[in-house]
Amino acid sequence: MIPHLPKGDFRFIALDVETANGDSASICQIGLAFVHHGGAIDTWASFVDPLMPFAPFNTELHGIGAGTVRNAPNFAEVFTVLRDTLAAHPLVQHSRFDEKAMAAACRIHKLPKPNFQWIDSVAVARRAWPELKGNGGHGLASLKERLGLSFKHHDAGEDARAAAEVILHAEAVFSAKGGAIRPAIPAFQLKLPL
The CATH number of 10-193 is which of 3.30.70.100, 3.40.190.10, 3.40.50.2000, 3.30.420.10? Predict the structure, then answer.
């Protein structure tokens, strides 16, 4: 059964996926973080039957295996529920992997390629905290320590929430610097530097 999506008008939605194996189309969990205009975040996640075998490395990384997704919906079933909501909001991903995985899963399930608005929170983090280059980097594990985030890494819902929090923390940095600010994407109401 697919969990009900939060309702409302959101500033943006952060998305994260976990995969069953080295094939980016093998999505076995999708997580979303719905960011309200006031900054509150609602988190949603669903396991997905990837209809592919699990690689031991992936299962060890995120703890999801064939038993976890038994009776879970497949990607086409989940995507049908998510598509309109995702299309109506800018999407944040932490690296470009999630966008590529979603496109690959659509391709193998013979679904139209989604035409979503994406922003990479890694790129935003690089602008907000350039001093982390070569000093821990801009991955979620490093940012977790730097920003004091609390989340379970490699859980799609938790990682999506962390990506959303990275954006909110970056907005505070850019506002504090007092420089010129503009939306990163016209419809995306983020305060990011020019």
Answer: 3.30.420.10
String of DSSP letters for 79-108 = HHHHHHHHHTS-EEESSSHHHHHHHHHHHH
Question: Residue range 107-115: average pLDDT?
Answer: 94
Segment 91-110, tens digit of pLDDT: 999 999 999 999 999 999 99
pTM (two decimals): 0.89
Q: In the block, which residue shows the tokens 């506002």?
A: 175
* Whole-Å CA distances, 103 to 11, 17, 23, 108: 23, 12, 12, 9
